[in-house]
Design goal:
single chain; 369 residues; alpha/beta; 8-stranded mixed beta sheet; 3-stranded antiparallel beta sheet; 11 helices; 20% strand; globular
Length: 369
């Protein structure tokens, strides 16, 4: 408080304030060369874990890039029970350490996803926390993730990119923040911050044949997207060989905090800010003659039973973790959490791949038992 009062009395210009901030000494990082488990109190008054990984090369006198890594499966009821174990096995964390970047791993859950108020506030707060404790290069903050983490990359690229220089979205869906988070998202906003994205041909959730349409639509809207397709399913191993290309992409993209031109659309003033542009009022009017509404109509032809499996269960069979909300077959047939699925029609289902093979033999609307 005393420091703030002193600054206000001096009435400095913004350049002087910026110079003082950037020249302030940073404390030595006790975590240099390792990962540390921390926790934070989120805006819903729930304490959730996060992990910061600091490379051994960290020098408090030198600004360092920051990689925000968001995990998949964010809609589960409970936070991962072993965050440190997850990070130790995470290829994105290893990539950051290899290239001398600090990595942050938040952990979310249902009610604190990457596209709701709680989860997004948590991500913003952790960036601020990291900048207080470490010498972070403001113009080299990136976000990356697979599956739900990739959908989060699209989310932030379209509604809150100001902190970031680039996004990496591996096997995600840019429609998730609208469909699951009820957020007003606009593909043209991805012109402001580049996105590296991948899909795989046999992805059970977001196959290339479907996602390609959304990518083409976004590019037509002006989005800055680098897109690759690969063989494989909804599995990180299918795209892990792209990580060197991801590193090159991120290294090439530093943020321009004051671009000379910005294109930004918003349906809510909460998401009306991008870099120096701020939309502080929204009215209901006829669209301007030059405005084009970019949308892709997607037909969901996936066979969805309506539950999330318990991935810790080793079988045989598939144990039901939680039921999805909505009108799904799982609820119609009375499936409950803890049930073990051993057969679908006449096909044995000893594992998830067995269930996916059976799904390939039926179509939406077919009867099954």
């Amino acid at each position: 408080g005393a420091a703030l009062s002193s600054i206000v009395r001096q009435d400095p210009g913004w350049r002087a304030v910026a110079e003082r901030i950037t020249s302030a000494p940073r404390p030595d990082a006790a975590a240099a060369g390792k990962a540390v488990l921390r926790s934070t109190l989120c805006v819903d008054s729930v304490e959730r874990p996060w992990v910061v990984s600091v490379p051994a090369s960290y020098d408090p006198a030198m600004p360092m890039p920051l990689l925000m890594v968001l995990h998949g499966g964010v809609g589960v009821a409970e936070v991962f029970d072993d965050p440190m174990g997850y990070v130790e096995e995470d290829e994105m964390a290893a990539l950051a350490m290899e290239h001398g970047w600090i990595a942050l791993h938040p952990f979310g859950q249902a009610g604190a996803t990457w596209w709701d108020e709680v989860g997004m506030a948590n991500v913003r707060n952790l960036i601020r926390t990291a900048k207080r404790e470490f010498n972070i290069d403001d113009d080299r903050v990136w976000m990356a993730g697979f599956s739900d983490g990739a959908s989060a990359g699209f989310t932030h690229a379209m509604v809150a990119p100001s902190d970031y220089a680039a996004f990496v979205a591996l096997n995600g869906h840019m429609g998730v923040p609208s469909l699951d988070g009820d957020l007003p998202v606009y593909a043209p906003n991805m012109a402001a911050t580049p996105v590296f994205t991948t899909t795989t041909f046999d992805d059970e959730l977001y196959p290339s044949r479907t996602m390609r349409t959304t990518i083409e639509m976004a590019r037509a809207a002006g989005a800055d997207i680098y897109y690759r397709e690969f063989q494989g399913t909804h599995d990180f191993d299918a795209v892990v060989d792209e990580l060197p290309a991801v590193a090159r992409f991120l290294d090439r993209h530093a943020r321009d905090p004051f671009p000379s031109r910005l294109c930004w659309e918003a349906g809510d003033v909460e998401f009306g800010q991008c870099r120096w542009l701020s939309i502080d009022r929204i009215t209901i009017d006829e669209p301007a003659p030059w405005h084009e509404d970019h949308n892709a109509t997607l037909v969901d032809d996936r066979v969805t039973i309506g539950f999330q499996p318990d991935y810790e269960f080793e079988g045989p069979g598939i144990r039901v973790g939680i039921l999805s909300d909505g009108d799904y077959p799982a609820r119609d047939i009375g499936l409950q959490a803890g049930d073990i699925i051993i057969r679908a029609d006449d096909a044995r289902t000893d594992s998830l791949p067995d269930l996916n093979d059976w799904k390939d033999t039926v179509e939406r609307g077919d009867e099954f038992g």
